[in-house]
């Protein structure tokens, strides 16, 4: 599968690297993860409250936006990585 990484800016590339780092970062803003998903061509499906789903390459990932904090929790970063792996996205 060929992905168009040229559609990503530098910040989105850094976000992708951070998602795949170990241990999962504790200070990664959720909006950066969403921006990365959008750059990769994901469709957003808004749910109730903080629930949001993304569809990318036929894979659907369901997440809850963190609140009141802006930073994603480590488990949310790990879930984002699992979603990207299933969709065939690697750094």
What does this structure look like?
The chain has 91 residues and is an alpha+beta fold. It has one domain. The chain has three helices and three strands; from the N terminus they run H-H-E-E-E-H. The chain has a three-stranded antiparallel β-sheet, covered by helices on one side. Strand 2 and strand 3 form a beta hairpin.
Structural class: alpha+beta
C-alpha Rg (nearest Å): 12 Å
Low-confidence stretches: none
Overall domain count: 1
Strand content: 15-25%
Query: What is the global morphology?
Result: globular
Number of helices: 3
Spatial arrangement of strands, main beta sheet:
1-2-3
- Give the proportion of residues in helices: 25-40%
How many β-strands, per DSSP?
3
> Average pLDDT, to the nearest integer?
90
- Summarize the helix and strand pattern as letters: HHEEEH
Please outline the major beta sheet: 3 strands, antiparallel
N-end to C-end Cα span? 13 Å
Short description, anyone?
With 91 residues, the protein is α+β, with helices and mostly antiparallel strands. Helices cover 36% and strands 18% of the residues.
Give the topology, please:
Elements: H1 10-19, H2 30-39, E1 43-46, E2 51-56, E3 59-64, H3 74-86
Antiparallel strand pairs: 1-2, 2-3
Helix pairs in contact: 1-2
Top keywords for this entry?
single chain; 91 residues; alpha+beta; 3-stranded antiparallel beta sheet; 3 helices; 3 strands; 36% helix
């Amino acid at each position: 599968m060929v992905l168009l990484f040229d559609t990503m800016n530098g910040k989105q590339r850094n976000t992708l690297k951070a998602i795949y780092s170990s241990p999962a970062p504790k200070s990664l803003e959720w909006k950066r993860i969403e921006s990365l998903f959008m750059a990769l061509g994901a469709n957003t499906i808004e749910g109730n409250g903080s629930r949001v789903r993304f569809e990318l390459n036929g894979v659907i990932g369901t997440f809850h936006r963190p609140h009141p904090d802006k930073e994603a929790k480590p488990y949310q970063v790990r879930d984002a990585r699992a979603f990207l792996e299933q969709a065939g996205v690697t750094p």
